[in-house]
């Protein structure tokens, strides 16, 4: 038996026979995680510097089911990291670019950006990551050197900010993916392409996490949960006792509700046209639920009446411009703030009466909840580790990679919240 496996076996035997406190169990988890990382690093040493064959879900055409293909993943180049993706999740952004209804189609492509995994190998110049590290690959990044990275108020890295049109790696513009059969290059997506069992990501877009954080839950921190919570805590910044309205009760909107509770909001109002979302509103502790379809008046008038003149903060998570205008109109004069979180269509135009601004209402937007990936995201990891943030309740479905198209069906039909894709099942 491998020495690390033997250590794990002996430790489990000790735990079964021990009546010690939870501290022993916690410490044992740390030891087991460390042992697992060392074992993985040892296994990965045989693949470093080589092309890795694996399975990936490839989008060949807009709106067509993804196809599980045998692909090759090239070794990481300078400042790049190759990651063994363990779990991925489907986000609306993946759906948006898969449908390609209002964006230029780029195919074939490996989608996916909300994921977790383990470092397999690193390229030259990568000193802060090593094989075996548990990590989150991110659609944005933090180079640490540009003016935006040095500004505490911005997370819009000039080098690694989100770029949906980029089809290859930053260093050379080339893809690290190709089909095994025809050696045909496959385009990257958001610099992550996590619907592949292995992927290559710029090191500035990879965040190391605590190895005791379950990877099937950790993947949610790489997009939706961080975006929702950050829209409240980092952007809207409500005062304790504030009223907050959230347009769209998907995963991001419900994460915003979690942020609202953390911020001490006195009233959290969820707005959604899907009557099934009432169940989630109750489960996540919202104080009110409004379905615009059930009212003859515009929803902003309903909200202003409910809050004696207007809502303190509005979070728009649908990407629907009409919803954004309603959010703006629903704000209280003098201090109301609306935050755009949802991604609108490329040709969308926002219009509002200029007097909304003269009446001291504010509208702003956010990417990734204004969290700086490397220096800000660890605060959310700490929240989870300290039982201040629950991630499991956002997961409603699980599927193996071979059934990834079910995740698209669930999202299109509005069934559930996040679907976790087991990339190695």
Automatic annotation (TrEMBL):
Top-level taxon in the UniProt lineage = Eukaryota
Q: Per the UniProt record, which EC number(s) apply here?
A: 1.1.1.1
UniProt cross-references to InterPro entries, sorted A to Z: ADH-like_C, ADH-like_N, ADH_Zn_CS, ER, GroES-like_sf, NAD(P)-bd_dom_sf
Q: Name one Pfam family in it.
A: ADH_N
- Sequence ranges assigned to domain Enoyl reductase (ER) in this UniProt record: 63-421
Biological process terms in GO annotation? formaldehyde catabolic process
Any single GO CC term annotated in Swiss-Prot or TrEMBL for this entry: cytosol
Cite the GO molecular-function annotations of the record: alcohol dehydrogenase (NAD+) activity; S-(hydroxymethyl)glutathione dehydrogenase [NAD(P)+] activity; zinc ion binding
Q: What keywords are assigned to this protein?
A: Metal-binding, NAD, Oxidoreductase, Zinc
* Top-level EC class as recorded in UniProt: oxidoreductase
> So which cofactors does this thing need?
Zn(2+)
Family membership, please give it: Belongs to the zinc-containing alcohol dehydrogenase family. Class-III subfamily.
Subunit-structure text: Homodimer.
Q: What is this protein called?
A: alcohol dehydrogenase
Species of provenance? Arachis hypogaea
